[in-house]
Structure formats: structure tokens, C-alpha cells
Amino acid sequence: MTIQTTDRELAESLRGELIDRADKEYESARRLYNGMIDKRPRMIARCADVADVIRAVDYGREQGLLIAVRGGGHNGPGFGSCDDGLVIDLSAMNGVRVDPDSATVRVEAGCKQGDVDHAAHAFGLAFPAGIVSTTGIAGLTLGGGHGYLTRKYGLTIDNLLEADVVLADGSFVTASETRHEDLFWALRGGGGNFGVVTSFRYRAHPVSMVYGGPIFWDFQDARRVMRWYRDFLPEAPEELCPFLGLKTVPSTAPFPEELWGRKVCALISCYNGPAEEAEAAMRPIRTDLPAPLLDGVTTMPYPAMQSLFDPLLPSGLQWYWKGDFVKELPDEAIDAHIEHAARKPSELSLMHLYPIDGAVHRVGQGETAWSYRDATWSMVIDGIDPDPSKAPAITSWAREYWEAVHPYTMGGAYVNFMMDEGDDRLRATYGANYSRLVAVKRAYDPTNLFRVNQNIGVS
To answer: I want to staple 377 with a disulfide (CB 3.0 to 4.6 A). Which of 4, 36, 296, 353 is the partner?
Structure first.
């Protein structure tokens, strides 16, 4: 391995690996989940433990380097890297420890969702987080986190008990309800602004086998399905999480070949509970709506539910996403959705509405940094394609779609469904909580060392 002379001291002080531009691993190490983003850091510190993280933070600060922090590496705008700076790569820190007696899970920050699901499933436990097993648990949590268990058990941050953090001055603290309470408040939705979180401890819940999967209707039925869905959701048991998608049937197994490439309206549902209760909860979906093109709902282990989409979304695709929080879905909004979804520029491009009602609403707006506690859905519009030449088309489609439906939304968005969209969008996203986030930022990172993120400025 070749290391620049000025960086040799850092390389020699790490238990992990320091990779620079001359190293043969550099090209693969710098590669990002979103193939649309291309950054060339000066070096990548692949940390083995907390001591490595402290050393890397100290070195980056002392040398005046731009610092980016990479956990699972699933970030859309590519904030897990930077040009000409230092990437603190946590991917080797991927241990999970489940305590079945206390029903808690300790997770290192380099873990992906699949690591957590696999470990916790052996004990019949899980907590709300994501719908794709390749999602990084750190970024998902720091942004708030929602998934199939959210209606019953809240956001990921509502199940967070504590977090270990390396601060900008190189010190190490544990934030919880009783220690560094202001930092703990900010970490729950405020992103990576306040330090490098090295591990999280979560409250888990009984989850083992679930009843779930996709149901597809022809796109011509989308208006009827969407109107029905907005009325059904408030009455649905919280154990049932049905999210709505305007999608295209992928041209690959296991989908029936006669449906490949067909535009559909989908409900992807997950019920955590006994099979007979699940069947009863799902019955209105099957009796009140037209006959579907495909009904793939079945009983499966929870980790299988969490990884259903993995084969369709490998690392390296072109991505452009836009999000918003949605409270109501009037007919005019449904019409705008259908108009723009009909123009999808690629097979993988989509719109999803994820329910964030139920338990989410039982937490106060000011109790965590996540402020949209009265939203019904978290919406994402994703332009996706493997071909780099399609990047302009999927980007313009996502932007135009978002502009058409944004007037029917609440104004702010889930930070994990945003590109690099500027201060005004962040102020809209955090609302009344923004000024408090600025105060915490000033207290824990007064020089804005951690600024490669959805940045809460200190000025």
C-alpha cells in the first residue's frame, strides 16, 4: 500500500486500513451506492474500532481536511464521500449484539439492515427500520427511520435507547435520555451533523414470521386503488403496514413473464401477528378492490420480507430521488400522481407512499428532531436506471413529478429522501425544531467539522 508521506503517521496509528489514490483498492473503496455520484477523496480510513475513529477525526481536524463519514454507504446524494478530503469508513465496524433478556440490540455503525435483521431474528426480535436489507443502519437511524413496523412501534429513532459518539474535538460520549440529553434529542432525526456515531442501542419487539408481499393492479385501476387506500389506512390495524407504489413490473424472475414491463399500482404489505389475524386484516384489500394482476402475499420470515427488493436494487445504479411528507391525499393530488407516474422514463423508477401514522403520532413534535409527527405518509419519487446515459431523463422526471405534487404536501421531507437541496429545504423539514438543532450544533461541532451531510449550519 502506498501512503503519502504526510499521511503515514495516520496510517501507522490505525488498526484498520488507510487507502489512498495510489492503492489498488482505491477505485472500489471510493465507489458509492448511487452510481450518479463520483467523488475522489484524498484518502479513506477504514476504521476497525472506536480508537481508529477518534484518531481519524483528530487527524482530519488537525490537518484541516474535509471529512465525510460513511456507514452503510446507502446515501442518495453521496454524502458518504467527498472530493480531496478524508472519508471515515465504518463498514468494517459491523458487529451486532442481541440481549434477549432486555430485548435490546446493540449495533455498530457500519452495519447494514440485513446484518441487524439476521442477528435479531434468531431471537424473534426486530425494530422498525427500512425496507431494503442493504440500507445502512446508521444513516437510516440518524435521519429518523421508518419501515414495515412503524405503524405499531414508531420510527427507528423512537426505539433508540442510546448512541456512542465521537465528537469533533475527538472526545467520546454516550448520549441517551439521561446523558447528553440535548445531543440525544438532535441525533434522533438531525442526521450526521453532531459527530461520528459508532454504535446504537435499540429497544426491540417480538417479530418472527410475518404475512406480507406485493399485490399489483393494472395501472388503469390506480385512481380507484389510491382513493380506497387513503380511506382504508386510518382504519387498518397498526400491525398492518401497507405502502402504496406506482411502479413497473420488473422484467425478471420471480415475476410472471407476461407481466414484465407493465405499469401497475401496488400495495406492498406486512402484517406482524398471527396468520388468522393477518388474513382478516388483509381481507378488505382483496374484497373491496378489482381483481389484481398478481397477489404475492404469503407467510415468510421477517428478514425475507426486509430483503424482497434487494435483487432489483444493486449498488451502482443511477439514482435521483425527491421526497415530501404528506398528510392528505385529495383527488387532485391523485390525478397529478397518475399523470406523472404514467410517464416514467425507466422500468425501475417509482413513487412510494410509506405510512408514518399510528405510533409515530403518539410522540410529540418537539420530543425528537424529527418534526413531522402529524404526517400520514413519507413520500419518495425515485428516478432509477442502470444506464448512466439515462441520468438526465430520470432526474428531470423526478423533479417534474415532485413539482407537480409538492403543492399537496406538508412542505418538508424525510432527510434520507433528499438530494443536496439547500438550507431552505432543511428549514422546512425541521420546522420549529430547526433553531434548537442549530444550538446543539454550535455546542457539539462549533466549527462545522461535520458538514458533508444535510447540514445544519452554525451561522
So the answer is: 353
